[in-house]
Write the structure tokens for this entry.
Amino acid sequence: MNTDTARYVCPACNAEQDIDTPLWRCPACGSHLNLTDGPGLTPDQIDRDLPSLWRYAAALRVPREAAITMGEGLTPLVERDWGGQPVHFKLDFMAPTGSFKDRGTTVLMSYLKWKGVTAILEDSSGNAGASMAAYTAAAGMDCRILVPASAPAGKLVQMRAAGADVVPVPGTRQEVSDAAFAEAESRFYASHNWQPFFLEGTKTAAYEMWEQLGFRAPDNVVMPAGGGSNVIGCHIGFRELLARGQIDRLPRIFAVQAAACAPVCASFDAGTDDPIEVPVTPSAADGIAIAKPVHLREMLDAVRATNGACVSVGEDEIVAALKGLVRSGLFVEPTSATAAAAVTRLVADGRIGRGETTALILTGSGLKATAKVGHLLGLET
Ligand SMILES: [Zn+2]
């Protein structure tokens, strides 16, 4: 564990806070907070007898003894042909609740319980809420999740089954968040979009790919991007490895959005750090349909600092990629297919070259979205 130097840092006003008191936003100005970078890791610091992401506890700012864990992480990295190009598929849907969110949740919930928090508030209608519900159940913590009243009932079963108090809120997704802000006065707001210890967990995907590739970084990492926890987590993890002298350059990070909701790509294409209002239409990739991401600037920094790009893909491309994935045995949810669609595009236009090592993160299980997959692929009977 390395908690000695960890601090909350505000990207807006530069205020710093100790991590002893859990915070979800800057007390001075209300911005989201980041954590100072961690110490990184050397191969001999990995606890190789531990088959979960807690094998990297030496690099995490939560002690191993405080871990609330269900064996998450250490997901397979499987090499397959994708359109004539070898691609390393990171099967992050192989997680206790069926999505990569468990990486962030195990570390965030362990931190909160370690610091004495016993009841949390979250707002989500999807994988993050399901993950929070499961880990609070495992920890014996109380969990209240605000969801849009319009959320499909099926998505809420996983949360309710774990015992979470699931509260429908009328109105838009933004109105759900506003309701959460109001309740945050009386209950700790453990939002996966705000609390930076979530990113402390998602950064372990970078460590894993580094270990699984024989302690080297891939040339490219391609992943879906909504709130940005994977994109930013990967950037942090590889940045820490670089600073520790374990890799000699950062992989290019490609953040993939559906064209139907692509605010990060809009700012990236315009060459600005500022948010740009974008039109939003329905998409098969509902898991990344976030019009106003809290961590927009950190996502843009991850892409720009690594010489990567933000790629937006159309609905036809997403469905074609989904078909290709499930036909190869990788039964993922439609949101994950955006990354594969992007690799097709990046190889076709030469931005990913022959002989490069490309990792593609598959974020969510298709078992959570069988009706939707069936509908998109025309498999309904
Ligand atoms: Zn501030």
The mean pLDDT is 95. Residues 10, 12-13, 15, 26, 28-29, 31 surround zinc ion (CB under 6 Å).
